[in-house]
Amino acid sequence: MNMKIGIIGFNIFGVGGTSRSNINLIQELQQEDCDIVFFNTSNFSEEDVRDLVSRETLKKNVSFKRLNDILSSDGIDSYILTRESLFVLARALKRTYPNSKIIGEVHAPIYNVEIGPDFAEDAIDIYRVSTANTAELLKRKLGKDNVIPFSISIRHVIFVKEIRNKSSKPTNFFIFSRFDETSKDIAYAISLMRYLVKEKKMISYKLFINGQGVGRILYKNLINAYGLNDNVFINYEPPTDYTYLSTSRAETFGYSIMEALGQGMPAVLYPGDDGVLKEIYGNLKSVAWLTKDVKKDAETIIQFIEQPLLNQDYQCDMQYIKKNCITINYGREYIDKVIKSDYTVKFDGNVDASKIVNEIYTSHLGNQTLWGKIIKRGNKNRYFRRVTKSKKLQNYTLKVTSLLKKSNPNSETSIIQENIRNDYIFIESFHGKNFSGDPKYIALAIKERYPNKKIFVSSTNQLVDMEIYKYHFIPLRTGSSRYVSVFCQSRLVVVNGNTLDKVGKREGQIILQTWHGFPLKKMVADLVDEKEKQKQLKAFYPRMLKWDYLISSSSKNTQYITSAFQLEKNQNLKILEIGAPKNTYLLENNNNLSELERLHLKYFGTEVNGRKYILYCPTWRQEKRDDLSALDLKKMISLLPINYHLIVKLHPNEAYLRRHYANIDPRIHCFYNDITDIQELYLLSETLITDYSSAMFDFAHTRKKIIVLQEDKKQYAQNIGWYFDLEDLTGLMGRSYTEEELVREIIEPEMDFYNEIISDVLMSNDTEDSTNELMKILSRDVFMEEKNGNC
Questions:
Q1: How far is CA 84 from the centre of its chain?
Q2: Which of 37, 63, 527, 676 is deepest in the core (most CB within 10 A)?
Q3: 421-580 adopts what CATH topology?
Q4: Distance of alpha carbon 46 from its chain centroid, rounded?
Q5: Is 62 helix (H, G, I), strand (E, B) or coil?
Q6: Which residue range or ranges hold the Glycosyl transferase family domain (predicted)?
Q7: Beta strand extents in 193-275 (DSSP E only)
């Protein structure tokens, strides 16, 4: 009797490593005369089936069904779950077919896998992973031995017999990957290209990035921002001769790497945060290894490219691959070693199998946006493609999708009830518009002291995601269902603004408010405009009552924010006059040359080069404006010595002006707010120009020059008002300037004692020990307790 095997996957008709792995597995098993039923979670058509069967030469013993048919398919001996998000189906299958063997194929990086209820330990008989090291790691996490290392099939890879000797390796680089920064880190590859092209002058280097996914927007933005339009290309025809590049944070195998090597192409690879790629490809002479240090990696690439790829080296690599990566009778060995292994689990759970299947089916369909479905149906028609480029049509479909979600009780707006987790930390800075300020530096301190805690960070877009991933934190799209769920489960919430009203606050949660600056201008309850004051108070007051802790930099700071926020009405609030962690960073790194070098690489893609940067940091105005100042910045920069450059730091509410200010002059820089940390810009800059922004008070810690440019001082005072007279208290005088006057003020070397006065009076508790003081309080009052509650 032939074995009948059910394989469950997301979309075998799509692209990507998992889809290719599933096709290969089907082809291997069909050679063993198995009857195979593939259950697809995504919708598909008969045309999709015909195309796949024809393209991959599949036999008649292979059939395709939708996932919601899985409980009506009797007689299947074994089910293979090929995606971690499908593992919960094991309970439905065990409940319905208790004698079937259930295999869970783990394709996610093991080091980052969270063994929770959805991992379905109680119903999965065997877990299959790719390598021996990952198998041992998963065994330790599970506390069980039912993990089998068995590599995926590479039967589709074509290997050339020999290569032509080359004087050097190709200077074209190629990435073929899903556009997903969660694991792929293609943003690093683009940053590496910037350094190679801009600093190392490797202008002949070209990078081709091909694939699909939402990350395409991020990559286009970075290419434009870095000035790499002549060197980095997305979804162009790939070159025939290239060096393969992979900067992925994690891969379980890397099909595209093996495919490139099979064609005689060399490869430059990051081993992965878990080292899996080094385990697979570490003995090959055709491969060089990256470290995620831009300077070191650039040198590695240049040296590797200059060395010829010899045919004898390639032949040695192919022998190694054929010996270690290719299984001759793959299908038979998979059956014997995995499916027929002795590991079994008896499932005793009383579950609603139909409900589980329906929830999985609808949740996976929900991942396909309305716009994505429209595109999928019409992308073969060139007239249709022209229509779908319409921004109005795209915005309309997004609105429709949003309305559909609101009408669905299981959509993003529903709150998932879970117990509070002591190991969950929720971080949000500027409502997810960037990752900076006190929340960032508190998150880094928690990570250092408590490496096993899971730190989640609110993010409004992919650029913010990119910054969050750099620190190995987990981004959450602001306001999403996942955001709400994690927020509700987090023991500690750290914010520098107000939390979203819809997430509420649970008993047992701690909200640490850091606010985002020392106030000069009046706020909320102290506003001059009575109507605006009442409007802001009504919205602000209930949010303030959620706060448990508030950080302050001095008694003056406490005095002003107590008045502005009516803090005396929150009887449970503890005000911590211990100073701001963001300024601990400033004080610790003010003369740190290695940090200065890192910042030059981050913002300019170059090494320290003798430039002097002026930071222009105006606060925002409630009315929308097209210019930050009456000054002609292009004229001003032309009057300054050639080594002077201007950085325009926009307020998050005026980020729409970035394109204008980024294109005025090559010596004027305006970065995406989403990837900018103003504390870092303080360290880079020689001089700060601001108006009413709290930036001047933080910047005073650097002991560098501050210029107060106030062109609407009288009007601003009438509409907003001040807590104190800046000139009387600090000696800093706000005034308007002509371009020539401002240039003289920038170059003028004399400085008053305003920095010392600001630091000693207004920011007196900011010290290099402020972060440690806060961590002592959190360790004592937050992390040593565990409480449960309901959301």
A1: 20
A2: 676
A3: Rossmann fold (3.40.50)
A4: 37
A5: strand
A6: 163-312
A7: 206-210, 232-234, 243-246, 267-269
Q: Which of 573, 575, 569 is nearest to 541 (CA)?
A: 569
CA distances from 95 to 98, 125, 416 (A): 6, 13, 25
Tally of CB atoms within 10 A around 392? 7
Q: Using CB atoms within 10 Å of the CB of residue 652, give its burial: 0 to 12 exposed, 13 to 18 middle, 19+ buried.
A: middle
Q: Whats the size of the chain, residue-wise? A: 791
- What would the DSSP string read from start to end of 501-521? GGG---TT-EEEE--S---SB
DSSP string, 105-126: E--S-GGG---SGGG-TTT-SE
The yes-or-no verdict on residue 783 having pLDDT over 50 is yes
- 452 vs 391, residue with greater confidence: 452
Task: Report pLDDT digits (tens) over 469-502.
Answer: 999 999 999 999 999 999 999 999 999 999 999 9
Residues sharing a CB contact under 8 Å with residue 264, sequence separation 6 or more, in sequence order: 160, 162, 163, 309, 314
> Cβ atoms within 10 A of the Cβ of 773, count?
17
The H or E element that residue 4 is part of is strand 4-9
Q: Cα 85 from chain centroid? A: 20
Q: What is the pLDDT of residues 329-383, one digit of tens each?
A: 999 999 999 999 999 999 998 999 999 999 888 877 654 444 444 544 454 455 5
Compute the half-sphere exposure of residue 506: CA atoms within 13 Å on the CB side of its CA: 25
CA–CA gap between residue 555 and residue 571 (Å, rounded): 19
The Cα–Cα gap between 434 and 428 comes to: 9
Domain ranges in the chain are 4-153+330-339, 172-324, 370-408, 421-580, 587-762
What CA–CA distance (Å, rounded) separates 493 from 482? 15
Instruction: Please say whether the dihedral angle defined by the alpha carbons of residues 51, 57, 59 and 64, taken in this order, is positive or negative.
Output: negative
- Please give the Cα distance from 506 to 452 (Å, whole number): 23
The sheet carrying 126-129 orders its strands as 62-66, 35-40, 4-9, 78-81, 101-105, 126-129, 147-149
pLDDT over 60 at 631, yes or no: yes
Nearest Cα to 564, choosing from 596, 536, 595?
Answer: 536
Query: What is the distance between the alpha carbons of residues 302 and 196, in angstroms, rounded to a whole number?
Result: 9
Identify the CATH assignment for 4-153+330-339 out of 3.40.47.10, 3.30.390.10, 2.30.29.30, 3.40.50.2000: 3.40.50.2000
Report the candidate in 367, 483, 354 with the shortest Cα–Cα distance to residue 426.
483
Q: Which of 511, 462, 513 is nearest to 487 (CA)?
A: 511
**Lowest mean pLDDT: which of 47-56, 92-101, 626-635, 781-790?**
781-790
For the chain, the C-alpha Rg in angstroms (whole number) is 29
**Topology (CATH level 3) of domain 172-324:** Rossmann fold (3.40.50)
Name the pLDDT band for 109 (thresholds 50, 70, 90). Answer: confident
| 427 DSSP β-pair partners | 457, 494
| pLDDT score at 368 | 47
Strands 490-495 and 474-477: unpaired
Q: Domain 587-762 in CATH: superfamily? A: CDP-glycerol glycerophosphotransferase, C-terminal domain (3.40.50.12580)
CA-to-CA dists, residue 427 to 424, 554, 765, angstroms: 10, 24, 23
Contact 644, 616 (CB under 8 A): no
| Amino acid letter, residue 436 | S
CA dist., res. 19 & res. 10, Å (int) = 8
Backbone angles phi, psi at 230, to 5 degrees: -90, 0
pLDDT higher than 80, residue 751: no
Neighbours of 651 (CB within 10 A): 17
Could you tell me if 294 and 195 are in contact, meaning their C-beta atoms sit under 8 angstroms apart? yes
- Token readout for 479 is 């306001």
pTM, rounded to two decimals: 0.86
